[in-house]
């Protein structure tokens, strides 16, 4: 084509990136081995699988397929390396991370080409986005390694971490996992996705170059059913970090339930891209391109649902179609391409299947006239209109370049449709009215909200989901907590050979309550006064009911449970709650969700008021504790006073556990807001009947959640005595709901309930496992004690940031600005 012709047509010429160096590197290493203890190690079974280039369908190389024996070897290398790596000074770890970042930059071009060859994504994206973000992640976390000692006092590394990553951002996901793990002093065994192992193996080579101590990072390539499952089930792994499909996340939750392994899950999404009628539509069109055609739509937070205000829908769709006609799809190594190949023929077929279902369900399909390359796994950019909100297309994650469009009329309707999904990973809001955009952002159930922008990521800004998009955050300070545990917990309950786990609630009480001995004289002292009430009459019978929606409610079962003290003396009766009562309580808790919108000052006032009213009755509450536990009066009074102090602590925290403003490298700011999780189920411990109850309820409500609490079944009367305290302290109806009864059965109902957003459980080891298993239904967050005791009197163990973090989730709202 002559220069004149090019001027006329403005057609792109080819701009190929050379692949010769990457191909030579591949050839040199073929077949790729496992990276264990800083050595290339052949798989025990001598088994290899083929990795191919999605853009051509042709084989690239052979990669080792690890099985259980190899995973065992890698885990033991990581275990062996842990004591010394975890004690390596932060500054030294920072130097290693810094060196890794530098080496990533030195090999940036090779890594970018390898990623394009192996994954099918365009070189434009690997070169300009994936690899720079990888380097940034290591630089950023070098900083946290340096600062860990001063900024995270009282925390220790978790131990040996198993990490499983997907194929859509192979090296970037590796960086998201490995950088914080190493910064916090953990050692790692990482399994890449089987389609995309090559950049992880190049990364292994970089580990050798920087001289990272042997065993700190181990890479086991292989298939899910062998390497992946062996890693998840390995008894010497302390934490699993996973990114991938919600379905596999669910199975990992199931496999690890009750094991005590820490777990973070970054799962799927169906993120809304909301366009109001005052938005700049040309910017919106470019935003949509980035939202759904970036990385061929194989992005967990892809803006796959376009919600557009009805009055501009037609105009926007026309502009979008015109833009789609100009998207270039083809060879990922051509620098002028917008869209590359889908990772595998199987994934391509999955996309096609969902598109076919969409057409069958009546949605209207539109694809541009530009042809896809015939070889390789390409799929054209696709637009659906006339999509029903409940249809498969609108609900199921397609994980391909397929955009579905829905319309709305009012902001309220936009929020409703946006939240009408089981996921909650991300959302974009487009409007030139910043008041409107900032009003909508907090209402969206999503971990990241981008205003007039989309798919922005940075190491300083935590990323992660609400609801079935998983739990845990990656990036930012919040992401670090996934890789540490409180030092007191590590000292008392190291997973390997730590303190014996108490299996029964009773054991727990004895284990952690230093004053567990029965004081019979205290019992006698009170039985005399109680039996006759000082006047020679029997005491007036008080049978507390349940506390639901601010009122005392009879249990549905119509049955009561008799509560006896340690001497066998009958103390009273409480209602025996059942499934129906829990449902009613959850409904009441939802109705009270306005509590989350109350000002922090207001919530603090109410916590102080509860303390005031409880304080006025401290002798009575102490007496009740003595009756139920036969501890000394002085000890019981100490429990009441500690409960008062705890209420004061959380009243203080309401307006001090704040979010932050991150400063990623962009013109703008990112507001990291700590939001309540929603409705929390709380199963309270047996030790310290009042303090255990207050220690869970207070942080939960301080942060704006509403709760359904199951008091200690052995000593529920301290909690039921609080009804009147709550009623006189202006606690809005439904904010605190209390259902007495059998802890295990009621906890299971709460953990299974789809409208409960998180479940805290402090009971037995078996009960903890049952809660983790039951939580799979809607992938709710859980916080359980695995039957281990905790000293509730101790401020380090019984209150503070650990509780507040469990009571909140972080939403990052990206606000770019400038003309
Ligand atoms: P998976 O969730 O199956 O795979 C992600 C990673 O987990 C891979 O390393 C995989 O190994 C591994 N894995 C799979 N099953 C297990 C298991 N039981 N135990 C341990 N490890 C396991 O994603 P797919 O690649 O199969 O993609 C399927 C769908 O998942 C996509 O269509 C998309 O909808 C979604 N997805 C979502 C992602 C996200 O970021 N949210 C990322 C990738 C996929 P292996 O590669 O060997 O199978």
UniProtKB/TrEMBL annotation:
Residues 40-486, 568-787 form the Aldehyde dehydrogenase domain. Signal peptide: none annotated. Belongs to the aldehyde dehydrogenase family. The lineage of its organism: Bacteria, Bacillati, Chloroflexota, Ktedonobacteria, Ktedonobacterales. The keyword GTP-binding does not apply. It comes from Dictyobacter aurantiacus. It comes from the Bacteria. The keyword Oxidoreductase applies. PROSITE patterns: ALDEHYDE_DEHYDR_GLU. PANTHER family: ALDEHYDE DEHYDROGENASE-RELATED. Keywords: Oxidoreductase. Transmembrane segments: none annotated. The active site is at residue 266. One of its GO terms (molecular function) is oxidoreductase activity, acting on the aldehyde or oxo group of donors, NAD or NADP as acceptor. This is Aldehyde dehydrogenase.
């Amino acid at each position: 084509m002559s220069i004149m012709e090019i001027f006329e047509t403005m057609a792109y010429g080819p701009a190929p990136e050379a692949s010769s160096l990457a191909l030579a590197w591949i050839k040199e290493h073929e077949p790729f081995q496992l990276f264990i203890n800083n050595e290339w190690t052949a798989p025990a079974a001598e088994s290899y699988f083929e990795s191919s280039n999605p853009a051509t369908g042709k084989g690239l190389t052979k990669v080792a397929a690890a099985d259980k024996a190899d995973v065992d070897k890698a885990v033991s290398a990581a275990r062996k390396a842990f004591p010394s790596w975890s004690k390596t000074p932060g500054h030294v770890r920072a130097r290693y991370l810094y060196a890794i970042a530098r080496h990533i930059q030195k090999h940036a071009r090779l890594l970018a080409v390898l990623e394009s060859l192996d994954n099918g994504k365009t070189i434009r994206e690997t070169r300009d986005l994936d690899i720079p973000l990888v380097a940034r992640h290591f630089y950023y976390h070098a900083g946290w390694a340096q600062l860990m000692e001063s900024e995270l006092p009282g925390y220790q590394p978790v131990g040996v971490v198993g990490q499983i990553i997907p194929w859509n951002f192979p090296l970037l996901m590796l960086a998201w996992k490995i950088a914080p793990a190493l910064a916090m002093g953990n050692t790692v065994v990482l399994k890449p996705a089987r389609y995309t192992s090559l950049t992880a193996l190049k990364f292994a080579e970089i580990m050798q170059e920087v001289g990272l101590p042997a065993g700190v990072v181990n890479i086991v390539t292989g298939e899910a059913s062998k390497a992946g499952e062996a890693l998840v089930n390995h008894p010497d792994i302390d934490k699993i970090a996973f990114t991938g499909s919600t379905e596999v996340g669910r199975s990992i939750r199931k496999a690890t339930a009750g094991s005590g392994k820490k777990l973070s899950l970054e799962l799927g999404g169906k993120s809304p891209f909301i366009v109001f009628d005052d938005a700049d539509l040309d910017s919106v069109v470019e935003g949509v391109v980035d939202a759904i055609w970036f990385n061929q739509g194989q992005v967990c937070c892809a803006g796959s649902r376009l919600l557009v205000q009805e009055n501009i829908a037609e105009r926007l769709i026309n502009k979008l179609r015109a833009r789609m006609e100009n998207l270039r799809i083809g060879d990922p190594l051509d620098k002028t391409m917008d869209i590359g190949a889908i990772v595998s023929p199987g994934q391509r077929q999955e996309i096609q299947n969902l598109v076919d279902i969409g057409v069958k369900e009546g949605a209207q399909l539109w694809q541009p006239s530009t042809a896809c390359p015939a070889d390789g796994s390409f799929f054209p950019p696709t637009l659906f209109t006339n999509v029903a909100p409940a249809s498969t297309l609108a609900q199921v994650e397609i994980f391909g370049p397929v955009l579905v469009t829905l319309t709305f009329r009012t902001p309220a309707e936009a929020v409703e449709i946006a939240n009408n999904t089981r996921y909650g990973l991300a959302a974009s809001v487009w409007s030139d009215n910043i008041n409107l955009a900032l009003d909508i952002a907090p209402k969206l159930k999503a971990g990241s909200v981008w205003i007039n922008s989309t798919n922005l990521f940075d190491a300083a800004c935590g990323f992660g989901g609400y609801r079935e998009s998983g739990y845990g955050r990656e990036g930012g300070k919040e992401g670090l907590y996934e890789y540490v545990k409180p030092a007191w917990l590590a000292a008392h309950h190291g997973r390997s050979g730590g303190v014996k786990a108490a299996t029964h609630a009773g054991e727990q009480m004895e284990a952690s309550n230093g004053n567990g001995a029965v004081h019979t004289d205290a019992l006698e002292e009170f039985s005399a006064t109680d039996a006759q009430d000082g006047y020679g009459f029997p005491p007036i019978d008080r049978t507390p009911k349940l506390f639901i929606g601010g009122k005392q409610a009879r249990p549905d079962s119509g049955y009561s449970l008799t509560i006896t003290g340690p001497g066998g003396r009958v103390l009273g009766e409480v209602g025996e709650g059942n499934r129906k009562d829990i449902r009613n309580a959850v409904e009441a808790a939802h109705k009270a969700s306005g509590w989350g919108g109350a000002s922090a000052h207001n919530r603090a006032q109410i916590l102080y008021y509860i303390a005031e009213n409880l304080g006025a009755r401290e002798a009575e509450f102490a007496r009740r504790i003595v009756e139920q536990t036969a501890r000394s009066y002085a000890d019981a009074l100490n429990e009441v006073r500690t409960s008062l102090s705890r209420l004061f602590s959380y009243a203080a925290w309401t307006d001090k556990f704040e979010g932050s403003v991150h400063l990623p490298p962009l013109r703008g700011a990112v507001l990291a807001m700590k939001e309540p999780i929603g409705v929390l189920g709380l199963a309270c411990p047996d030790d310290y009947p009042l303090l255990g109850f207050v220690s869970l309820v207070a942080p939960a409500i301080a942060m704006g959640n509403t709760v359904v609490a199951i008091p200690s079944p052995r000593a529920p009367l301290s909690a039921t005595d609080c009804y009147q305290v709550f009623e006189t302290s202006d606690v809005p109806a439904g904010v605190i709901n209390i259902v007495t009864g059998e802890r295990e059965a009621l906890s299971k109902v709460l953990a299974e309930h789809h409208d409960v957003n998180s479940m805290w459980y402090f009971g037995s080891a078996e009960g903890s496992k049952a809660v983790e298993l039951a939580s799979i239904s809607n992938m709710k967050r859980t916080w359980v004690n695995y039957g281990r005791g905790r000293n509730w009197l101790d401020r380090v163990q019984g209150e503070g940031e650990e509780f507040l973090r469990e009571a909140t989730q972080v939403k990052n709202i990206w606000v770019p600005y400038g003309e």
